[in-house]
Amino acid sequence: MNGALLGATTFAAIGVLFLLAAIRGFTSSLYMTLFSSVANETVGLIALGVFAASLLAGVVGWRSAPRRAIAFSGMLLVGAGIVATIVRWNWGDIVLWGVAVVAGTWWMTLTHAARARGRSSPFVLGLPAAVVTDLALRAAFRTIPVSELQLPVAIAITALGALVFLAAGIAAFDGDMEWTSPGPRGAVALAAIPAVLLVGELGATVPTVAAVAGGRALGPEGP
To answer: Cβ(61)–Cβ(113) under 8 Å?
Structure first.
């Protein structure tokens, strides 16, 4: 694996980890903060609006060159994530993680679409690596999100991830880049992968839910 491929894979994997943390942080903070005080329909509309803002990635790409668009969205993603990790305030979490979700969806879209000539998408290897790393972190910290660990530990891990993310991006995107469009195989993957990740998030990749589904979480008193 050459330096550019390693950098691109690392950049994609760490970015996906930040995006997953943002999605979980935003959805949990939104619901737990507004639960019983705001109608669920309103909470759903807020969430829909935030995720729908991912469509603005096209505007960012249209107004910026590939490297600049990726750098802007990526730094917004990790920056909002670091500040949210430090702040830890309900309303602040909603706003900061919401910004991170929007920026993260932009970053993922733009990184997938902008490539140096002859290179494949960095998510071919980066996405599986991110999922495996995410499972390992959940197991290591007993399903507690990194952003909710003891503050010094959470800041150290998040800041280290941001620095490696920055270094990998610099190493991966040092050549000329251009906007591309997916072929038939890529279009199928773009349609299928979000659904697979959603199913995994709702059960298969969540240790506690997987244990319950497999009958391993039952005590001696029965179901």
So the answer is: yes
